[in-house]
Amino acid sequence: MKKKIATILICMLVAICSVFTVVTSTSVNKQILVIQSNNSKQGGTLLITEFNGNRVIEVDSGGTIIWEKAGLNNPVDAERLANGNTLITELGNNSVIEVDSGGNIVWNYNMLNGPFDAERLANGNTLITDTYNNRVIEVDSGGTIVWEKTGLNLSADAERLANGNTLIAEVGNDRVIEVDSGGNIVWSYNGADWPVDAERLANGNTLITEYVYGNRVLEVDSSGILVWQYYSSAILFDAERLANGNTLITEFLYGNRVIEVDSGGTIVWEKAGLDFPIDVERISKPPDAPTISGPNTGKPNTDYDFTFNSVDPDGDDVRFIIDWGDGDNETTSFTASGTNLTVSHSWSEKGTYSIIARAEDGYDALSDWSGPYQIIIKKSKSINSPFHWLQNWLQSHPNLFPIIRQLLGL
After folding, report:
1. 233 or 97: which carries more pLDDT confidence?
2. Which CATH class name applies to 2-283?
3. 10 Å Cβ neighbour count for 92?
4. Could you tell me the pTM of the whole model?
């Protein structure tokens, strides 16, 4: 019975929104209103899907529309791809399309029945929730299904996790499940009330959006313990955790806005005047390639300090992924954009090593790799007293007296 009711509800989504449009058309202001407080750290842009507006828009932090794809048929999901194109799920056309910056369709897949979500995977394939067919599928660029999880009950959202598993929100079964590549359930949360969206957070917890009856966003840990929630009088449909710890939420019905709330549930930022926003995604510009500074010579098994710096155009914090050139790789903690971060490293063997790094912001946007920074590690020659003090002093000042250093083999 629950499955039947859920199916009727989702199938009536188009009709419901059409009715509300007639009633509220005179009061819906197409201008996007922006309220922002000092507790918000909105950088980058937002990609917002307007279900009843039949468009996907990209807006800056001031609310100005800087890109738009109009003329859609009840879009329910959109994401900006690494190549600059946009992947859009159209419920009305039973299709997933990829459009370029000019709005031209460059790829599509339409062998679907009520798709609600799609994401482009790192391998170039596309993960799609084929909702009314009660499955999640992965298709390659040619449209061939290469993986699927069947036997679901109104799968509304899916996300491929870093471990290769897939997180799925099942509306009909009131649960969120994680399945492995064989389709076996390895984790589940059964306490959700009509979950339509789920995402795995960096801390290992899961953020879930409840639709209609729940009207809340909740965060649960791996044991299913509730650790955070936000209730709303509006009907919600999507939520995304920001790098600053706040949460973006779409108030789909009775709100017609996208809000940002802090951990205490206070609205610190909003974009109002939208036409049934059903999905939101924060778009981040990648940081600049890092600069690297430090010594150019050294000796084995000695720690040397190197300074890394990168500017993020959105002002986001950044961290550095470092390749030390000796087989060792390191990922640092996050630091403020444009500030120096000092990292130490040592080499065990003599040789010439090229250090490269790239910066990453809190939204997984990666910079290009830096140019190589070289350090030469030489074996130290033994020097008898009274020159041993000079050797030690020159080792700690690698850029001074190059001729003396050459004579001493440093």
Report:
1. 97
2. mainly beta
3. 14
4. 0.77
